[in-house]
Amino acid sequence: MTWIMVSGLGLGTMDLVPKKVLNKIPLADVVFVENYTGLIPTEEIEKLRSMNENLVFLTREDCEVNDYKKIFDALDSGKNVVFLTEGDPMLATTHVNLVIELGKRNIDFELVPSVSIVCASMSLSGLQIYRLGEVLTFPIDYKRAKNSIRDKILRGLDNKKHILILFEMDLKAQMYVGPLEFLEFARTDLKEILDNRIVLISRLGLRDQKIFSIQLKDLDKVEIGQPPWTMILAVDPHPMEKEYLELIQYRPED
Q1: Which stretch of DSSP H or E encloses residue 215?
Q2: Minimal CA–CA distance to 138: which of 96, 61, 198, 50?
Q3: pTM of this prediction?
Q4: 146-159 and 179-189 are packed helices; what angle lies between their axes, rounded to 10 degrees?
Q5: Are residues 123 and 242 in the same domain?
């Protein structure tokens, strides 16, 4: 009976990949890698290839338009499969449709959680996970979505919950949006958050990762690092959270 393991590569390097997944990769007939929503460094791809040379990379069209046809074709032909994505496959990068279809077809699958941008960002920020409210993606074409973004942030402010902001990247087109565009949006459409302290993380999980806290209004006065970025808007932080934000406050030597 054929099988498929669905898991994530963690963030940045393979140091955080679950051991169970590392043990399974060499046993698969084919390893599918979704690499359109996260940045997987070339050296990490080569590590994967050294474990299993039968790597197949999936595009957004393969997953979201063609409904994972390449994966199901492989399974239907009797091949055992590992499907990998950056982060965790069921959180920030969601492949729940794949798992649902596997269940409908009575295909033997194992879902292995991995480190996600959501849990890693909160952990590194020192902010408490139970005080996390909205999680939103700030899109490249954010000006067309500004009312929806504003509503979500205002809801977070009203509920006194932190807001996790992910910045859209189009790796195929080499396009991205970042914290400075968010600052521009706030100055125009959401001035009430300019005094809030934010935690900015650039290149989460990579060797040149950078993290600091700063008031949003001062973000364009400092070096913000390189994409990809993740930002947390701190809302009414607890005294202990404030202490941690002070600990990671931006300093010129950062």
Answers
A1: strand 210-215
A2: 198
A3: 0.89
A4: 80
A5: yes
